[in-house]
Design a protein that fits this description.
The protein is built from six helices and seven strands. It is α+β, with helices and mostly antiparallel strands and 320 residues long. It has two domains: 158 residues; 155 residues, Histidine kinase-like ATPase, C-terminal domain (Heat Shock Protein 90, 2-Layer Sandwich), CATH 3.30.565. The strands form two sheets. The protein has a five-stranded mixed β-sheet with strand order 2-4-5-7-6. A hairpin with a 2-residue loop joins strand 4 and strand 5. The model has no long low-confidence stretch (mean pLDDT 88). The chain binds adenosine-5'-diphosphate (ADP) and magnesium ion.
Length: 320
């Protein structure tokens, strides 16, 4: 009351100014309230939309989670199935290793005894039949050994036994063995050794397998009277080995494929009957396990083939 009385006593201009200011304040206050309410509504709407989007995302996510769960379940099942199949394969391999190889060894032994007892002489039917049995059992033995190697490679159990050994001695052993086969076919086998005394750190048995396979192939595919050369040398800490033949050679488009399992070139069928196309793939695994390389060069069909491999000589070069 005192304030109103006080205002009334003021002169008119001041009275109006105070009144206008009061009115302005009131308008500002009302406008502010409206703006606040509107803002609140906008915020609430946005919050609502946001919650709806979150709910939709949650639904999508739970759908994906259940999909993932069912996939994990399926994976578990197929894993169990894989383990079961791997067990079957191991059993099969042990059957191959023992139950099949043992009787085969007996057959070979008895056949050799029969051969000694049977009358000797060219054209003897009995001797020829016994010879065929021996050849067949040899082939079966080789196939079983190759299959077991492939199985070990695939199950990751193909381990190398690294030791220091004299490479020349190993090559001599392989050479003497293969020389017999070469002579039977009238093939000239020559060996060049340089240097003459090389010690390498590698798996002796597995490297002999590589040499036997490369020389065996060269003999198998070469025509009668053909020449085969095997040579090796040492270069910048690597042992490099070549097997060079004058056989049918390998077509360009086949050269990348012959190291694949079971691959035998259809372009030349001369040696196909003996073998299953496993030797080179096993040789490649062995050379790779030595951190080495293996390859072939051939000017094409009818022009011979040069197989080569190289492995490091120093133990320090090995990662395993
Ligand atoms: N010295 C060679 N000359 C011509 N072709 C060869 C030679 N060595 C290998 N090949 C080709 O590579 C294929 C695969 O060889 P390999 O893996 O040793 O199997 P396999 O000797 O059992 O046929 C052979 O079938 C043959 O087509
Ligand atoms: Mg072979």
């Amino acid at each position: 009351m005192l304030i109103i009385e006080y205002i009334r006593q003021l002169s008119y201009p001041i009275y109006y100014t105070v009144l206008t200011a009061a009115l302005l304040l009131l308008t500002f206050w009302i406008a502010r309230r409206f703006a606040m309410r509107k803002m609140k509504r906008v915020v609430m709407k946005a919050e609502h939309n946001y919650q709806q989007q979150i709910a939709a995302l949650q639904m999508q996510l739970s759908g994906k989670v259940s999909m993932l769960e069912s996939m994990v379940e399926k994976l578990k099942l197929s894993n169990q199935e894989l383990n079961r199949l791997s067990e079957i394969r191991s059993k099969f391999m042990s059957i191959v290793a023992h139950d099949l190889r043992q009787p085969l060894t007996s057959i070979q032994g008895f056949t050799s005894v029969l051969m000694m007892d049977s009358p000797q002489g060219g054209g003897n039917n009995e001797q020829m039949a016994l010879n065929n049995i021996l050849k067949a059992t040899d082939n079966m033995n080789q196939l079983m050994a190759d299959l077991m190697d492939i199985s070990m490679i695939e199950s990751g159990k193909f381990k190398m036994d690294f030791k220091n050994f004299n490479f020349n001695q190993l090559l001599n052993d392989v050479f003497t063995l293969q020389q017999v086969n070469a002579q039977k076919k009238g093939i000239f086998l020559t060996k060049y050794e340089y240097p003459t005394d090389v010690t390498i750190y590698a798996d002796r048995f597995r490297i002999s397998q590589v040499l036997n396979n490369l020389l065996g192939n060269a003999i198998k595919f070469s025509p009668q009277g053909g020449r085969i050369e095997i040579r090796y040398f040492v270069q910048n800490g690597w042992l490099v080995c070549y097997v060079d033949d004058e056989g049918p050679g390998i077509a360009y488009d086949e050269q990348g494929k012959i190291f694949q399992k079971f691959h035998q070139s259809d372009k030349d069928r001369s040696g196909r009957k003996q073998g299953w196309g496993l030797g080179l793939s096993i040789a490649q695994e062995i050379v790779n396990a030595h951190n080495g390389e293996i390859g072939v060069e051939s000017p094409g069909l009818g022009h011979g083939a040069l197989f080569w491999f190289r492995i490091p000589m120093e133990p320090a070069s090995y990662s395993a």
